[in-house]
Specification:
- The complex is a heterodimer of chains A (262) and B (285).
- Chain A is built from 11 helices and no strands.
- By secondary structure, chain A is mostly helical.
- Chain A has a single domain, classed as MetI-like (MetI-like fold, Orthogonal Bundle).
- With 285 residues, chain B is mainly alpha-helical.
- Chain B has a domain of 177 residues: Orthogonal Bundle (MetI-like fold), CATH 1.10.3720.
- In chain B, strands 1-2 form a two-stranded antiparallel sheet.
- In chain B, β1 and β2 form a beta hairpin.
- The chains are: A mainly alpha (262), B mainly alpha (285).
Chain lengths: 262, 285
Amino acid sequence: MKRERDWSESVLNVFVGLVLVFLALPTLAVIPMSFNSAELLVFPPPGYSTRWFATFFQRSEWYGAAINSLIVALLTTAVATIVGTAASMALARSRFRLKGAVAVVFLLPMMVPAIVTGVALYRSYAVWGLAGTIPGLVLAHTIVALPFVVINVSAVLNRMDWRMEQAALSLGASHLQAFLRVTLPIIKPGVMAGALFAFLTSFDEVVVALFMTGVDTVTLPVQMWAGIRFEINPVVAAVSVMLVGLSVFVFTVYALLRRSQP
Amino acid sequence: MAATRAAGFTRPRAELLVLPGLLMIVALFLYPLVSLVGISVYEKGDWTLRHYQRLIDVPAYVRVLQRTLIMGAATAFLCLLLGYPLAYRIATTSGRARAALIAGILVPFWTSLLVRTYGWMVMLNPQGILNKALISTGLLDSPLILINNTTGVLIGMTQIMLPYMVLPIVAVMVRLDPALMRAARILGAGPVRAFLRIYLPLTLPGIMAGVLLVFTISLGFFVIPALLGGTRDILLAQLVEVNINSTLNWGLAAALSTLLVVTTLLLYAIAHRYFRVSALWGDIR
């Protein structure tokens, strides 16, 4: 029986290893292509160069799109984190009628498919003069990012010991002081995780952005979309490698934050 | 002074803090959504179901809806096939190995969808890494067509959706008592029988949640079928986009969107009975 078990364990491990390779493959595949010296997606590359990275930093349609994405993602993160943390506080510490329904409303933007959100928002925001503008895209992305903030902050708040805050209040702290000096430091890992999710959600978001961006407000994913769908532009590979680096960095920060949670 | 404050004034309308976010979602999301649903049933001052009627009457549209359902189901099946053993390995491992396995799932999960889709285009195209490798080793004479068709879409969707299958199943598996399997073996069941009669049924809630989640999210996929699929076999989300950007048929696009949203929310509600869906985005440990 021992031997039979070892055998099935090895089969399982090999299978799991193959699944992990399958998961990593598309991410790894972009690395050799980004250092490709040719204009086409040929493998193996005829030679290696960093020309596509250079092109990225020389062409305004590429670095300009990255700057737009950064602006939108940072503004989205700021608004979504503040508004989402406030809402999570309200949901965690008060009881009011329809609270369950309100909590579901905060999760809806995550559940509605992006294509529907894109179409619906595009139609209304166009009427309001917001379509194709940076503020319009920030508002749209804030909506999409809010559920991620609420989920992460609520997860910490639900484990929080509220007596800490009560102690601060009974010792004479104002509500703002108690929040800033006691509650916020305790829930900080959740707030930071929510902010990271919000940033990545906005920075990588393509479907809603396809509808919401105009000629002057193209974001990096929209520019990549054009570079993939309508031509085979090798700059996309260079951008991809930089984005993978960003994801690994963000994941590491997230993992460290999770470790520091109570 | 401090005492009266603590007794009478501990919770100064904390619920008001929900308002900024709630107002944003209602005005900037729900209102646009409801008005989109509105134009699917209300036209030129009159109520109508003609857009929905067309979805049933026009064979091309019926085929798109069927194909969308089939692709969702196929993706869910493939994810279960690849995801269940992976989930089992994660649930039965601890320490560094477990952390590495989880990172192996979460890093791709956190990588841009476009990057991964582009990666598949690089991997799978006729001059791509996979075909070149298979031909140079003599396993193939001519390249396999793995892109711009259903195979490409399935490969891409399975890779993207796999974490949504694995994480709920792991959540159920780690709560199982290993003594149950030992008891079954001691009482004479073989490994296959113990698995089929004890382990599999007990992990069924995780499987249900995973399958429902993957199926549901797959129904709305746009980027992957648009980039890895062919031009003939489009899915629901692409039909929405075509009707807005090419044929300017807002009524039909609105009807398709309504159908998609209603189906999606219903399926989420069912999945939620098996698994707290929100845990996927930040509450897993």
